[in-house]
Amino acid sequence: MTLIRARLLVTMLALPIGVLLRPEATEGAWWVLWWSLLSVGAVSALFWLGVRVRRWCTAQSYAQVVADLALVTTISATSGGRDSQFVLFYALVVITGGLLNRLVGGLTAALAACGAYLALPWVASLLRIPGTPGIGALPPTGMLLAFFLMMGVLSGVLGERVRRTRDDLERTARELDRVRIDNDVILRHLTTGVLTVDGNGRVAYLNPTAEQVLGLRMLEVRDRPLTELPDRLHPLRDLVLATLRERTVRARAELMMKTPLGRWLPLGISTNVLTHEDAVTGVVAVFSDLTEVREMERRARRNETLAELGALSARIAHELRNGLNPISGSVECLQRELKLDGENAVLMDLIGRECIRLNRFVTDLLNYSRERDVVPEPLDLEEHLAELCEGLARDPRSVGRVRVRFERTGADAIVHADREQIRQVWLNLAANALEATPPNGELQVRWREGDGGMVMIEFVDTGPGIAADDLPRIGQPFFTTKQGGTGLGVAIAQRIVERHGGTLTFESDAGHGTTARVTLPGAITPAAQAA
Q: Residue ranges of the domains in the chain?
């Protein structure tokens, strides 16, 4: 493509100038000028199409050299032959051949130029062009031929170096592109956020994870000073600027910042100084969201506390039952043998009811402290929950008072769970919902597909809901909002769900009901997916 442009430029500038400087050499042959311009244009268009095809490049380069030699020979033959001012254009053709095809191309073009130069008189007679005066100031023929050969060798050596340099540059460019693409791909797929700033404290780069964590967009903050970031990010901003100012590395620091929604977010962050030839060029900060880590630590502490509490509860329950059994047995004997009335009968009934309540409490303590082995089996969740809701609809707490509705999906899901233990979870959650729901209320049981191969089962009631201050405490042992409750039902359900590899969470707005959500590993059957 460069050769095509150069040919057009030389033809449009040098050829008219040569004709105007020596008009007597081309007197009566102005048609040659126009013919040459048209020929060069046609040849250039033809070769331009060939270059666009991108095939037989070497053959095309030799064809262009041959075409240029033919044009120079024709022009020279019509303007003085060997004495024409245009014979020096052979040198341009030789240089072109050397640059395009290295030493072989340069020598080939030089030999062809020498042959064409020597054949100029024969070409002039062949074209029947009468003798025309030349400029008469060119070097002798031998010297001119030697000049062509020397130019062929020099241009060939130069072409060899140009080709080698170009190959090295292309190889380097490919390597740089590969490295850049690899680095970009790596940074874009990191699960940790990466923020870089230049030496002036301006944002240089944010990877997608950093955009998500910080609530920013790369296109909006790039090249902006770090001090112009939102105030909610001031802990991160101050740490990065301190690193840039003090030239000190910060490893595994922790800070709290706010999300765009106003939620506090714990971040683990490390910063380092970027240098080049002992000059500081910027700072890179690598950070990650510690929310899941903190949640795991909280669960670990909770499980440790619950394990200790379970062991203590087992000992307490054992001692309580040792004393409670003789008391309840003695009360039963007294009620059979004594005929009490009035206040004495009321007191005896009170003792009996309290014994029953304490015995239920001891039973809950033992259920909480004892972890039965989980014996999983495949359960058809749709049929399992439908059967549960049929039983709940006949429960005395719901008959004529609360409507129990199971929302069928028309799909199927299989969960692997211990049938008896997971049923205990459903009954605990349903009992809480039925007791919290006012008359003419509704308990809705439903399931749906979750993320990551999980299945979510929800118990939704229309009760008064749970206060925002109490919601985080739901599931803690002995915490209850029900009068007469032990506070162990939800705690037991939560432990069973966790032992099945799931989670139990609650959502509630005071005055708008409560949703108890159980998430369990499950498999959606092809029929469910089609539905």
A: 2-169, 190-289, 300-369, 377-530
Q: How far is CA 372 from each of CA 243, 306, 361, 368, 495, rounded to the nearest angstrom?
A: 54, 16, 19, 10, 11
Distance in angstroms (rounded) separating the CA atoms of residues 289 and 209: 10
C-beta separation of 188 from 207 below 8 A: yes
What's the CA gap between 143 and 198, in Å, rounded? Answer: 62
Distances (CA, A) of 310 to 234, 367, 498: 44, 9, 16
Checking if the pLDDT of 325 tops 70, the result is yes
Cβ–Cβ under 8 Å, residues 348 and 386: no
Of 48, 64, 50, nearest in space to 99 by CA: 64
User: Looking at residue 253, what DSSP letter applies?
Assistant: E
260: three-class secondary structure by DSSP: coil
Summarize pLDDT for 403-461 with one digit per residue, the tens.
888 887 767 788 888 888 888 888 888 888 888 888 888 888 988 887 777 888 899 99
pTM of the prediction? 0.45
d(CA 322, CA 70): 120
Helix 89-118 to helix 57-77 angle (10° resolution) is 70
377-530 is a CATH 3.90.180.10 domain: no
Angle at 30 between CA 27 and CA 34, to 5 degrees: 160
Check residue 482 and give its pLDDT. Answer: 67
Check pLDDT > 70 for residue 491: yes
Rounded to whole angstroms, the Cα distance separating 104 from 119 reads 22
Q: Is the pLDDT of residue 142 over 70?
A: yes
d(CA 249, CA 255): 16
The Cα 400–Cα 393 span in angstroms is 9
Q: Whole-angstrom Cα distance, residue 156 to residue 101?
A: 7
Cα 519 to the center of its chain, rounded Å: 27
Q: Which residues contact 494 (CB under 8 A, 6 or more apart)?
A: 475, 504
Average pLDDT score over residue span 513-519: 89
Domains 190-289 and 377-530 fall in the same CATH topology: no
The listed CATH number (3.30.450.20, 3.90.190.10, 3.40.50.300, 3.30.565.10) that belongs to domain 190-289: 3.30.450.20
CB-based contacts of 230, cutoff 8 Å, min separation 6? none
